[in-house]
Amino acid sequence: MNDTKSPLEHEEKVGVYVCHCGTNISKVVDVDDVAKWAENNPHVEISREYKFMCSSLGQELIEQDIKEKGLTKIVVASCSPHMHEGTFRTATENGGLNPFMFEMANIREHDSWITDDEEAATQKAKALVNAAIERVVHHQPLEEIPVEINPNTLVVGGGIAGITAALELADGGNHVYLVEREPSIGGHMAQLDKTFPTLDCSACILTPKMVDVDHHPNITLLTWSEVEKMDGYMGNFEVTVRKKARCVIEEHCTGCGICIEKCPFQVVDEVFEAGMGKRKVIYRPFPQAVPKYPVIDKENCAFFLKGTCKACEKFCPTEPNSIDFEQEDEILKLQVGNIILATGFELFDVKRIPQYGYGKLENVFTSLEFERMVNAAGPTEGKIVLRDQKSSPKSVAIVHCVGSRDENYHKYCSKVCCMYSLKFAHLVHERIPDAEVYNCYIDMRTPGKGYEEFYDRLLKEGTNFIRGKVAEVTDSARTAEEEGKLIVQVEDTLIGRQRRVPVDMVILSPAIEAQPDSKEVSQLFKMGCDFEGFFIERHPKLDPIATMTEGIFIAGACQGPKDVPDTVSQGAAAASRVASLISRGTVMMEPIRASINEDACSGCKICNNMCPYNAIEFIEEDGVSRVVTALCQGCGTCVAACPSGVITGAHFTNDQLISQIEGLLWDMRELEPVPAGKEEKK
Amino acid sequence: MKKFAYFPGCSLEKMASSYHKSALETTKAYDIELQELDDWNCCGATTYFHVDQLLAHTLVARNLALAEKERLDLVAPCSACYKNAFFTNKVLKDDPDLAEHINFALEEDDLQFNGEIDVHHLIEIFANEVGPDMLKKKIKNPLKGLNIAAYYGCQIVRPRKNGEEIENPQYFEDIISAMGAEPTYFPERLRCCGGSLIMTSREAALDMVRILLQSAEKNGAHVIATACPLCQVNLECYQEQVNEEFGTDFKMPILYFTQLLGLALGLSPKKLGIGIELVSATPVFSKLLPKEAN
Questions:
Q1: Are residues A435 and A483 part of one domain?
Q2: Out of A98, A270, B230, B256, which residue is the most buried by the measure of CB atoms under 10 Å away?
Q3: Range of A543's domain?
Q4: CB contacts < 8 Å between A and B, how many?
Q5: Is the pTM of this model over 0.90?
Q6: For A476, which of B165, B168, B187 is closest by C-beta distance?
Q7: Could you read off the pLDDT of A24-83 as tens digits, one per residue?
Q8: Predicted interface score ipTM higher than 0.85
Q9: Could you give the number of structural domains in chain A?
Q10: CA count, 13 A, side-chain hemisphere, B246
Q11: Cβ contact (<8 Å) for B187 and A355?
Q12: Cβ distance of A475 and B187 shorter than 8 Å
């Protein structure tokens, strides 16, 4: 590796600007002292402190100094580059320099925000500023790389978030590929009966949107499909999608449904009906499914199991026949410019809390089971009944926070459970007027338009509210009154007493969880997911839609628990972000790329396989490797791997990094290492 | 023969001597040797940890160090002893500074805690070390027709071990099935017996005992099996007072699981300390179906 520093070609004049950030930095770091101290560095021409460097006046200060004092390099010590690197690069450019003649020292997130020790913080700020000065003198001018944006977009997930995003983009005249894992789009919202707090019918507001997707000339709908691979970069992704065999030929099928009617086999529908109802083996998850084509469940189909039956084929009225038992999975390669992930959520498995009795005590239900039960199109046609399918409960307890706000499972609040638990209480009152309903909650969380009003309404409808976390649900009766009932043991913290509430039915409101495969999905799309499995947004407040990977956006509950209005907003927002990139046509990418000094390359090919983006090709005739700049993401893997040290990462050269480290360790200079052999002498 | 360091604890010295006897007899039948720790001391019981945590840990650490010296895992038959030993072992393993501090005191006795052994409850030896298959193999006198309520109590499941089903354990029932008896459905099986509450709040304590007895009786148990001397005392010795207080008529024998296992192994009741109960177990044994033609 080339360790000797190249001598500076000409005298550099560095301008240093230390920001107070209001009091964010200055309350811990002695900003004046840092600015004054920086003047000692021989490269520094001028060093200033300023209240808000990111303000227009702060930026103008940089521009002015470049013009008046002939500065050649700029250092700003302030917040994280994520916040304002772009701002100060622009200011540097406006002053007449190449924007990359700038370096940022993060003395807020990395310093003032993490300690109260003023002396240590000031000391660290000095080291960080010095490191930036030593680095910036080695900066070279770079030109941003223009990238053309393919106007097609991939949306992954056909729930309400994905549907919204797809329609927004398609309505704007852009082509969208909408990929959904299940046989129909609609997601969880299609399973719901009513939506809070307005109580409008979920299907009635969702299905028109599903139909729009189906008929939209700009949307290619790929259901019963999964993304397997993603290559490329922002503007030019290539995505591999597996379209699973439906065993139904979509070009011929009219969706008449005769095959479903004639299929002699039924299985319990664990997905759409949450185990509450049955479906045929050739099926559509629900009557309004989009697309209308059914799918054969190969695992349970008599033909695939025993080679007999074929009823669906026999009765199919189309010419030619729409059933194709031989159909194979199709692999599609899609070229898209941007990707929106809207992969949704899963519900917490309530069996993980055995003291709530689910699976052992038959009249304990999950919220999704209840949701299907109260749905007019569901297995009981909207009747609220116990597991015997006959008796209607005279008393119902709804248990909040099952797996949420619980340090043994999920610490977070799932956000929607309070509201749908209130909705459940209302539906019970509406359909069984003399039933008692108990809502056992930890805190009632109803922040949202019309939400608190809905809570008020339920208080007036006569729901019993018990503030306390349920300890257990048991059938162990202690009194005659408890006999034959489910007993909810709960501490009522408002009256300061343990209570045992005997009821006929218990509904558990489980936590919203990330999809079980969200980690793999985040790896596939080369972006991050947090400890809980939710996708990580670029900024928790100011950019909850983009990810740290350019060109990849997230929408809906895959980012965190969300209700329908929030999900729809985020879906539309993601679409608008993509639309803005598409209408720009070209975007400038940071020119941080690797390059190989071909004269010195030994042709060992080690870097070829190391590159995660397949961006290095081997030139046979010259016997050297070459970086395909358009594919390189500047990750630096090859730079570190090259045994001859002939790969350079632009803006991360050895000179720059070693100078930065030396600058950081300025106060260690006196501690010269003991020359070899000396210590042995004694 | 597998060998363990045996920490009987104060209760087994006198009050729970039948547990002591039956524990030794039954382990022996399965080729397990319980070697009593030489010069062991009190575990701190249920109270000392609330009085002075450092001294309580030191007290327990001394027993752990004694077992370590023998290079044997520690076995405690009493749930309170077990819980204390388990916790201190874990706390000191996780906190080397505290361990060092305590070792300073143990040095007086020429002892040292190094965190090299594990702590088990006696029932875990039967559940895991022996296992239900092996248990079954040595049963000579299956307790057919006997409905036994497996009463875990609370302390036995309190150390949250990784991945263990603390809210829904099954091993006690499996042991009872292995004896040839029927484990009774007993939804209150993990509830507290009241511990030492009887000293401070008699009424509340008696009610806790009543709930347990009522649930076992209602679900058809002939006998309650326990794995803890404190549970045994609360359920048995206060049964009469429960009857007086609540006008009930419980006559529920409370036996240690080792006593029942011993009977199934064909050991004599005397060897197992049976016959000194306050609530006689004799009527229970008439429940055993007449042995089929042998």
A1: yes
A2: B256
A3: 145-152+163-186+196-244+331-344+516-589
A4: 15
A5: no
A6: B187
A7: 999 999 999 999 999 999 999 999 999 999 999 999 999 999 999 999 999 999 999 988
A8: no
A9: 5
A10: 23
A11: no
A12: yes
